Automatic annotation (TrEMBL):
The lineage of its organism: Eukaryota, Fungi, Dikarya, Ascomycota, Saccharomycotina. Signal peptide: none annotated. Keywords: Coiled coil. Residues 97-125, 175-208 are annotated as: Disordered. GO terms for biological process: vacuolar transport. It comes from the Eukaryota. This is Similar to Saccharomyces cerevisiae YER128W Protein that interacts with Vps4p and has a role in vacuolar sorting. One of its GO terms (cellular component) is endosome. Residues 98-125, 175-191 have a biased composition (Basic and acidic residues). Pfam families: Vfa1 (PF08432).
């Protein structure tokens, strides 16, 4: 029995009470190996490890790793100033102004037009990391919304397993009893069934 549930949608006519809050739900988690169904609102599936943990795709995991890397780069850049983002930005502006001054003092006045290009080049690394970070964050959120597979909280899964087992035993028992009823002549029922806790005259009544 594997603890893997797939999220599915059911039609409105098939909705059932949510296991968590009892509101009508059209989302169901289905476990193929256990033949288990859990109706739930979508909201309970988000950041709720007491209930479920999402099983993420490889793409999601690599996006998160990339996000961490870019975040670190942003931090490193910021701390290259005197610690804060503002001083880091100021440093870039100061640097740019001084480079402009040195160009202006040059005798080659013809080259005045390329100056804005140089400014952009100076600015590029900082903006790239920030926009890359935002892009990755969007992608991560999008992949989070797409998750279809979930792992049930361990304790809850054990409980589902036990409940299923008990149900199966009860069903098997009932089938056996039904088979006995249909295969056995009423007068033989007394012999087949024994009701140790029931007074001896009761089984006769049951057989009729
Ligand atoms: Zn609910």
């Amino acid at each position: 029995m594997s603890n893997e549930y797939v999220k599915r949608k059911v039609a409105l006519k098939d909705m059932n009470p949510c296991m968590i809050c009892s509101k009508p739900a059209t989302t169901v988690l289905f476990n193929q190996t256990l033949k288990d169904l859990i109706y739930t609102c979508d909201i309970h599936l988000i950041e709720n490890p007491g209930f479920v943990v999402p099983i993420h795709s490889q793409e999601y995991n690599s996006t998160v790793a990339e996000l961490q890397r870019v975040k670190l780069q942003l931090k490193v850049q910021a701390s290259n100033g005197s610690g804060s983002w503002d001083t880091w930005v100021n440093k870039i502006f100061t640097k740019r102004n001084s480079s402009k001054d040195s160009e202006n003092s040059d005798d080659t006045k013809k080259d005045e037009t390329p100056t804005p290009v140089k400014e952009d080049q100076d600015k590029l690394p900082a903006i790239d990391y920030q926009s890359e970070y935002n892009k990755l964050l969007d992608k991560m959120t999008e992949l989070q919304m797409k998750v279809r597979n979930f792992k049930l909280n361990d304790n809850m899964f054990q409980h589902r397993l036990q409940t299923k087992k008990a149900q199966q035993i009860a069903i098997a028992k009932r089938k056996k009893e039904e088979a006995n009823y249909s295969n056995t002549k009423p007068e033989e029922l007394e012999k087949v069934f024994s009701f140790p806790t029931v007074p001896s005259n009761d089984p006769n009544k049951k057989g009729q």
